[in-house]
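step 4 of 6: structure.
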Amino acid sequence: MVQGLRFRWPGAAADCLAVEDFRLAAGERVFLRGPSGSGKSTLLSLIGGVLLPDAGTVAVHGQDLAALPAGRRDRYRADHVGFVFQLFNLLPYLSVLDNILLPCRFSPLRARRLAEAATTPVDEALRLAARLDLDAALLGRNAAALSVGQQQRVAAARALIGRPALVVADEPTSALDADRQQAFLDLLLGECAAAGAALLFVSHDGRLAGHFDRVADLAALNRADAGAGR
Amino acid sequence: MKPRFGLLWHLCWRSILNRRLSVALTVVAVGLSVAMLIGVERLRSDARAAFAQTISGTDLVVGARGGGAQLLLYSVFHIGNASNEISWDSVQRIASMPQVDWVVPLALGDSHRGFRVVGTTAAYFEHYRYGERRSLAFAEGRAFGDVFETVLGAEVAARHGYRVGDRIVLSHGAGADGTRFAEHADKPFTVVGILARSGTPVDRSVLVSLEGIAAIHVDWAGGAPIPGLSIAPEHVRKFDLRPKTVTAALVGLKSRIAVFRVQRAINTDTAEPLSAVLPGATLQELWNLVGMAEQALLAVSALVVAVGLAGLVAVMVAGLGERRRELAILRALGAGPRQVFALLALESLAASAAGIALGLALVYGAAALAGPWLQAGYGVALSLGWPGAAELRLLAAVFAASLLASVLPGLRAYRYSLADGMTIRI
């Protein structure tokens, strides 16, 4: 949930983002159209709590991020938000399995949710990998050895493990070819639904919008003068 | 969020493994520099110990008038040459002083295959002391008695495989091997004793009687054989073989209390310009002289360690540019900037700690391998014991320096992760 948001980069002459009201319901899957330069990355950083708004509130899972001290905010992000970026999502020196498990190590809460669901992080990682069409033989490989498509699916598994409330995907398909875009999107939507996570899917590519509960346009939401966004 | 050390360590370790070649190279660089620092320190303390233990139990060393340090160097350490000799009369005059217990004369100037020949008396074996007043022991045989008998230091015998009964030829002058001067080939000496190793210059000495020194020079004049004159060994005994001069003398007193009085008496002797020095005080003075070089060496080693650590930091910081993506991923996963700092600092610290460990291993390995050679060649016993207090202080300093150095990559990563957040813009 974003309300009355104002954000200006230090030293910038004008606001980069000015969003009056933007919310996702629990489990809702929203396509946010955002061409580059529309303040997309800034918005995601605000949702992650890496940046704080100059005015207004950004709340995730009912918690105003600005109310948390910095360390707790990082932890809150680990607990409740999974990110998938356009490219290079994985730590190249860890195995695929270790990459998927990382959120459970950063967030005891995610590990605890899995324990409550009577599973273990490793079992859950294996299950997610299987659901995302990742061959079990890949799991022991180094992440750097994977194809881009495989890497994106590993990133999706990593975002989903431990049932975060929100998955934020920033152009996760733009590095994939058209067939794979569709397949990846289907997997992501399906797993978010299965995990009960809301999905905020950010892309400039409107063709993918049809699969979502709702479509929003950042250019329309953002009342700040365009051009200051980064 | 408190950094969870297990996770950090896991990431740190995998990340280091990923860049194992460059990290290994910097670890080796740090290791070599630490090995140099600790090696120099160990060599320094061991050399100092060996140095201070070279002579004990001697109250005064007497030689021709000159610097005390120089006198000690040529008489005890066999380094350099005496500018002047002292007359046998002076030696006898000192021996007859009421406070004097014993006098051991030393006549230097000849050599055997690079080892110094020391002409002395049998009293040498009785009165020369080293370390905690230990006397010389015979590994084999006995002291010399006859004119053409010799006792070898342990190193001399070991180097050339001499046994009791072998015959050796002395050379004129104190040149090292290769710059051999005229030889006293007509008058070989028989080895009658070999001394046990003492770790002092005695190990590298060939000991003969004063008469032996006189005998090989009977048909010499001005440092060269007199042409056309050759006196066979069996005839030489008929000559007066009492020494006319010696190089120096070790003096023992009946009571140490008299040492300054006797010293003053010798220094103000009117018959001949003499110098008497207290070996302990002069050793200290000499070491202070050497100490300058030793301190410089230590300082250079410390600089080398600094260079090693700087190299490590440079590699870490240079690698950071490529790792900004990785740092952004960590941020997205919930790592705080402080954890990013800790991760990078931990990597550098782990690398330098590995370097320190490697350096220590190198020192011990080198001491084990090169120890016997050093002992034999230079009389320095390289100890294999636990690091001493000085070494521990140095190690602590190196560790503190690497701690400080590891802050730099950490800080840089911290700033990157603050600037980049989860998304990296390059």
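step 5 of 6: annotate
 - The two ends of chain A are 21 Å apart (CA to CA).
 - Residues 226-230 of chain A have pLDDT under 50 and may be disordered.
step 6 of 6: archive
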